[in-house]
Amino acid sequence: MSNPFQNLTGPAITLPQMLATRDWRSDQQLKLLQTYLGTTLIWSSVRIPGPIKTGPRLVTAYQAILAHLNQYYGVRVLASGQFDWATGFEFYLILNQTASTVKQHLITIEQNPGFSQLCDLDVLTLVNNQLHQTNRHGLDLPVRPCLICGADAKVCSRSRRHGLVDVQRTVDEIITVGWREI
Question: What's the pTM value of the predicted model, to 2 decimals?
Answer without folding.
Answer: 0.90
